[in-house]
């Protein structure tokens, strides 16, 4: 506000206070709170600057002999002190209130982080427990695989040692049959391990635009599905079966009577 406006306000205050008016100190704080709200065009800084400018003008007149604002210096000084005191108190209150809000936000953030950390810890504990169970299951199944493999090898060795005088085709038949059983037994164990630990042992289908079993589309037949998703199992079994069939045919036709070289 310019000097003319300050002078006009000072004249109005002189007329008010020289008429016997006394301001009430307790009414200032609610007014300060209303002025400080964001939904109006008032400003505490603007109020403080203007009241100080008016006080300075009246003080200058008071020092010069009170030619213009007689009797206003003391009440205006009290008014200025009271208003500045309430503004300072409100500023202190606002700072503390903001600190409380910041602490509340920080507390909420910490609680949210704590809940997240707790959930992650629970998930980690479940994962560790599951891994322990899976590890025990996998070790047990691998132990079973080793035992089965060792048993099959022992059986194969005993079979071969007991057929010294048997023809080569019969020996080959038993060897191929044992190989077929051992391979599929190991695959069955690996399949069980995959199911227990939640791992997929199937290969990705490389057929273009494959819709097998999707959106109600008819699924491939069993042999085709095995050939696409388990090619190593399919071709290994196919080769062993072909060799068994060829061996049986040759055995039946008596094309060769070689003995085992023992």
Architecture blueprint of SSEs:
Blueprint: H1 3-17, H2 28-36, H3 44-63, H4 73-161, H5 168-197, H6 222-229, H7 231-253
What report would you give on this structure?
The chain is mainly α and 262 residues long. It folds into 2 domains: 3-117; 162-253, no CATH class. The chain is 74% helix and 0% strand. The radius of gyration is 49 Å and the shape is rod-shaped. The model is unreliable at 256-262 (pLDDT under 50). Keywords: Coiled coil, Membrane, Transmembrane, Transmembrane helix. The chain crosses the membrane at residues 135-153, 173-194, 232-258. Residues 93-134 form a coiled coil.
Q: Name the assembly state.
A: single chain
Structural Rg: 49 Å
The share of residues in helices is: over 70%
| Stretches with pLDDT under 50, minimum 5 residues | 256-262
Compute the number of strand runs: 0
Strand content: under 5%
Biggest pleated sheet: none
How many helices? The count is 7
Give the overall shape, derived from the CA principal axes: rod-shaped
Structural class: mainly alpha
Please give the alpha-carbon distance between the first and last residues: 122 Å
How many domain modules? 2
Provide mean pLDDT, rounded.
75
The topology string of helices and strands comes to HHHHHHH
Keywords: Coiled coil, Membrane, Transmembrane, Transmembrane helix
Keyword list:
262 residues; mainly alpha; 7 helices; rod-shaped
Compact overview of the structure:
With 262 residues, the protein is an all-alpha fold.
């Amino acid at each position: 506000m310019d000097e003319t406006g300050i002078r006009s306000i000072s004249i109005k205050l002189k007329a008010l206070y020289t008429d016997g008016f006394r301001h009430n100190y307790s009414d200032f704080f609610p007014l300060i709170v209303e002025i400080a709200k964001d939904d109006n065009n008032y400003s505490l800084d603007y109020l403080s600057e203007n009241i100080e400018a008016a006080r300075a003008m009246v003080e200058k007149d008071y020092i010069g002999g009170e030619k213009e604002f007689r009797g206003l210096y003391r009440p205006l000084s009290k008014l200025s002190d009271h208003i500045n005191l309430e503004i300072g108190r409100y500023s202190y209150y606002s700072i503390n209130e903001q600190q409380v809000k910041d602490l509340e936000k920080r507390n909420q953030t910490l609680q949210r982080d704590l809940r997240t950390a707790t959930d992650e810890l629970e998930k980690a504990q479940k994962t560790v427990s599951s891994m322990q169970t899976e590890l025990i299951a996998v070790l047990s199944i691998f132990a079973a695989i080793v035992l089965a493999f060792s048993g099959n090898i022992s059986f194969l060795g005993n079979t071969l040692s007991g057929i010294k005088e048997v023809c080569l085709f019969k020996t080959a038949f038993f060897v191929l049959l044992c190989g077929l059983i051992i391979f599929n037994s190991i695959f069955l164990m690996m399949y069980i391990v995959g199911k227990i630990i939640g791992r997929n042992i199937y290969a990705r289908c490389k057929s273009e635009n494959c819709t097998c079993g999707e959106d109600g589309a008819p699924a491939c037949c069993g042999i085709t599905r095995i050939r696409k998703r388990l090619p190593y199992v399919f071709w290994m079994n196919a080769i062993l079966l072909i060799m068994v069939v060829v061996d049986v045919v040759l055995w039946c036709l008596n094309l060769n009577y070689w003995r085992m070289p023992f």
